[in-house]
């Protein structure tokens, strides 16, 4: 055990109940006693503070009232100075134009804006010619002329339009049947030889026995779900064929 933590026993002040004492303990006790003495001295020297709630509230309200009065006076002074300096900052034409613009924005109906110059002249005792001249100047300044070569430049930079090719079967068929030629017109265009061959084969009984009579659609040649047109009586198999028949073939 180190010698600093051990204290020799003095025979004169010997106490049989004490065998070991620590220097740290004695130092700690002395520091504690010094701190206690210093706190007591500081508490004696400190002054008492009066925490009167009524006095504090009165001071608070009086200070706020003084600040409000100072702010109001400063605001009035600034407003008066700004009103006095308004003609100095802006010209009479600018003031007239700003008032006119404010009245135009204040009107609920856009068609009533032509009455704004008359109202402005009657309210502020301003000549009507001054109001019209100020408005014409601003309109001339704000006018924007579109260059003539803008359209040409757009056409040169415009991407080419994609042309859709008609690939549907009905569109091609509609283009073919746009002539609206019926079977009678084809028969009338035949010569006598071909007409004799066709009609002799049709009216031949043996030919009918070999090829029985079949009803087909007048548009696409289909044989399923046939129905007749109300106007001309031709056979039609579907809605698309019916539309195409009404556009190209129906004679009624």
UniProtKB/TrEMBL annotation:
<protein>
    <recommendedName>
        <fullName>HIT-type domain-containing protein</fullName>
    </recommendedName>
</protein>
<dbReference type="GO" id="GO:0008270">
    <property type="term" value="F:zinc ion binding"/>
</dbReference>
<keyword id="KW-0479">Metal-binding</keyword>
<keyword id="KW-0862">Zinc</keyword>
<dbReference type="InterPro" id="IPR039723">
    <property type="entry name" value="Vps71/ZNHIT1"/>
</dbReference>
<dbReference type="GO" id="GO:0005634">
    <property type="term" value="C:nucleus"/>
</dbReference>
<dbReference type="InterPro" id="IPR007529">
    <property type="entry name" value="Znf_HIT"/>
</dbReference>
<dbReference type="GO" id="GO:0006338">
    <property type="term" value="P:chromatin remodeling"/>
</dbReference>
<feature type="region of interest" description="Disordered">
    <location>
        <begin position="64"/>
        <end position="92"/>
    </location>
</feature>
<keyword id="KW-0863">Zinc-finger</keyword>
<feature type="domain" description="HIT-type">
    <location>
        <begin position="217"/>
        <end position="250"/>
    </location>
</feature>
């Amino acid at each position: 055990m180190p010698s600093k933590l051990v204290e020799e026993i003095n025979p004169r002040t010997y106490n049989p109940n004490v065998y070991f004492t620590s220097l740290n303990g004695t130092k700690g006790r002395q520091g504690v006693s010094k701190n206690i003495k210093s706190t007591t001295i500081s508490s004696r020297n400190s002054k008492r503070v009066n925490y009167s709630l009524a006095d504090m509230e009165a001071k608070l309200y009086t200070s706020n009232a003084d600040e409000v009065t100072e702010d109001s006076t400063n605001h009035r002074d600034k407003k008066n100075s700004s009103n006095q300096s308004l003609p100095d900052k802006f010209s009479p034409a600018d003031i007239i134009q700003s008032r006119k613009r404010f009245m135009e924005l204040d009107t609920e109906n856009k068609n009533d804006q032509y009455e704004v110059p008359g109202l402005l002249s009657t309210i502020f005792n301003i000549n009507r010619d001054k109001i019209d001249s100020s408005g014409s100047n601003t309109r001339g300044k704000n006018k924007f002329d579109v260059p003539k070569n803008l359209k040409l430049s757009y056409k040169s930079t415009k991407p080419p339009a994609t042309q859709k090719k008609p690939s549907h079967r009905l569109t091609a068929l509609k283009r073919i049947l746009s002539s609206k030629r019926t079977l009678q017109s084809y028969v009338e265009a035949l010569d006598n030889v071909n007409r004799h061959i066709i009609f002799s084969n049709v009216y031949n009984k043996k030919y009918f026995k070999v090829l029985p009579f079949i009803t087909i659609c007048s548009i696409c040649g289909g044989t399923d779900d046939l129905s007749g047109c109300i106007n001309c009586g031709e056979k039609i198999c579907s809605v698309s064929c019916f539309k195409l028949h009404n556009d190209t073939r129906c004679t009624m």
